[in-house]
Amino acid sequence: MARARLLKRLKAIQESQGRLPELDAGELVDTILEDVQDLLNTIKGTVLINKKMGLSDVKSLFVSHGQMALDNITQEILYNIQHFEKRIDAVQLEKIDLPDSVNQIWNLYGNIVDSRGSFPFNAEIILTPDGRIQLKARD
After folding, report:
1. Of 8, 53, 102, 109, which residue is least crowded by CB atoms under 10 Å?
2. Do residues 55 and 74 touch, judged by C-beta distance below 8 A?
3. How many CB atoms lie within 10 A of CB 83?
4. The predicted structure's pLDDT at residue 14
5. How far is it, in rounded angstroms, from Cα 94 to Cα 99?
6. What is the C-alpha R_g of the chain?
7. Would you say residue 69 has pLDDT above 60?
8. Which of 4-8, 56-60, 68-72, 92-96 has the highest mean pLDDT?
9. To the nearest 10°, the Cα dihedral for 89, 90, 91, 95?
């Protein structure tokens, strides 16, 4: 449903008498991860409704690679997910050290909460040297 074009989504809502069709668990996780990826690729200060939304310039992280820079970006990622993605509960973030990798990688753990209850998920957050963040669901 999340990948459907806007008019198709509106038609589905009309046909279901104003209720959003429920996504299966896999689709829901994919949709939320896409939203988190968009959130984390937002530059802090550029969102008019909340200047705290998004991350600082993460490209500078690759210049210093210092532990303090890594700790700061880890805290920013955690803050953004906890404060701006309310469908995820019990968020945990774990930095993965891969000495030969040019990317910075974290494991993201948490629970997805919806009308059916709560279920756990696991994803990988990958920060590339060009400053882009990618999220991948893990089994």
Report:
1. 102
2. no
3. 12
4. 73
5. 16
6. 17
7. yes
8. 92-96
9. -160
Q: Is 8 exposed, middle or buried (0-12, 13-18, 19+ CB in 10 A)?
A: exposed
What order of strands is seen across the sheet that includes strand 133-138? 88-96, 104-114, 117-127, 133-138
Which residue matches tokens 């753990």? 109
Among the listed residues 29, 28, 30, 73, the one whose alpha carbon sits nearest the alpha carbon of residue 54: 73
Residue 1 has pLDDT above 60, yes or no: no
Confidence bin at 19 (pLDDT 50/70/90)? low
| 0.85 exceeded by pTM | no
User: Predicted confidence band at 63 (pLDDT cuts at 50, 70, 90)?
Assistant: low
What amino acid occupies position 96? I
Q: Nearest to residue 54, comparing CAs of 32, 76, 74, 86?
A: 76
Cβ neighbours around 80 below 10 Å, total: 19
CA atoms within 13 A on the CB side of 45: 2
Q: What six digits make up the tokens of 36?
A: 């988190």
**Domain 24-138 CATH assignment equals 3.10.450.40:** yes
In this structure, which amino acid lies at residue 42? T
